[in-house]
Amino acid sequence: MKKLITTLTALTAVTAFNTYAQSPDENLNESGIYVGGNYGYLRVEGEDEFDDDKDVWQGVLGYKFNSYIALEGSYIDFGDYGNNVAGASTDGYTAALKGIVPIVGGLSAYAKLGQLWSETDYRLAGATTTEDDESVFVGAGLSFAVTPQFLINAEYVVYDTELDADQVADDLEDTNFETDLKQASLGVEYRF
What is the pTM (predicted TM-score) of this model? Predict the structure, then answer.
């Protein structure tokens, strides 16, 4: 009798999981607003001797047009980097076009291309200055739907702090693609 109950319980669980694993695709194809947040690792590599590894926080707001395209904006806090004598603190806003490819069940892959508008506060031996910048970025990631509204994301984004969208449009051949900020993060997303 115990084997029968165990077998029935296992079959019920497998059937329920299989039913859910197929159903999120329908809901995930719908358009709509989503919000989310990411926490991750930031590698700062630059010519200004501020090479450092830091945590990064990001808040996300997006709109999914269909199964394959979304427009996404975010606020990013890159934190402080440097040392006691010289350092910097950077935060900014982004806008990106996000391409999505549903794979199976609730699993999707995506890629982003966008622009970062940032502000960096530099400090050197007690003196401070602020500099605004524009940067192009690219990223890619995987997304898994835990439920049709709640998703978990893992992504990698590369910010080129020497390059802005106007430079790319003006003359691609003479553009410097040296990258200074690399972000790997985990996040959550809620779709309304």
Answer: 0.72
